[in-house]
Specification:
Layout (H helix, E strand, L loop, with lengths): L8 H5 L1 H14 L12 H12 L15 E2 L6 E12 L5 E11 L3 E2 L2 H12 L2 E2 L1 H16 L3 E10 H4 L10 E8 H4 L1 H11 L2
Parallel strand pairs: 2-5
Antiparallel strand pairs: 1-4, 2-3, 3-6, 6-7
Pfam family, one: GTP_cyclohydroI
GO molecular function: GTP binding; GTP cyclohydrolase I activity; zinc ion binding
Organism: Paenibacillus elgii
Length: about 200
């Protein structure tokens, strides 16, 4: 599925300022922003920021769109949704997979809407814990399911490439709502179905 093209309008509207500050950062770390390989870097970084911070312009509550009336009241899972985000502490990338499960109570959303929701929530400065809770809360509010559960796996470059330098380590977070909180069998079914 090609991702919908979101852009951060604030970055676009302030392109000159953003480029100026990127150029200054290059200078402050000891680089020559006028050398050949760096001449276009401020513009490239600005275009990248438009893309990777596009979630700020998304109306996350509107992403799920029109819910369809459907009598299906069994577990629905959309798994292995790949995401990329930026750590709000270091502005370093983190990435991984998100697994979403919900038990409808008469309303369902189109399956691609869950991938769009992930894009909208992750394309901003974030922490993995908040991503997990926000996705679950939006699904709970907008679809009013019997229950929903979200599991997020992430590899954080702020932990892999700096600091403790532990490449390959993963962080796993979960958010549990409704029936999944009280029904161990439903929770176990979801967890077993998202395993590789």
């Amino acid at each position: 599925m090609p991702a919908k093209e979101y852009k951060n309008s604030r970055v676009a509207d302030n392109r000159e300022q953003v480029e100026h500050h990127i150029r200054e950062i290059l200078r402050l770390i000891g680089e020559d922003p006028d050398r050949e390989g760096l001449l276009d870097t401020p513009a490239r970084v600005t275009r990248m920021y438009e893309e990777i911070f596009a979630g700020y312009d998304a109306d996350v509550k509107d992403i799920l769109g029109v819910a369809f009336d459907e009598k299906h009241e069994e577990l629905v899972i959309v798994k292995d949704i790949v995401y990329y985000s930026q750590c709000e502490h270091h502005m370093a990338p983190f990435f991984g997979k998100i697994h979403i499960g919900y038990i409808p109570s008469g309303k369902i959303a189109g399956l691609s809407k869950f991938a769009r929701l992930v894009e909208a929530v992750t394309r901003r400065l974030q922490v993995q814990e908040r991503i997990t809770s926000e996705i679950a809360d939006i699904i709970e509010t907008e679809l009013e399911p019997h229950g929903c559960m979200v599991v997020v796996e992430g590899e954080h470059l702020c932990m892999c490439a700096r600091g403790v330098k532990k490449p390959g380590s993963k962080t796993v977070t979960s958010a549990v709502r409704g029936l999944f909180r009280t029904d161990a069998a439903s929770r176990s079914e979801f967890l077993s179905l998202i395993k590789d």
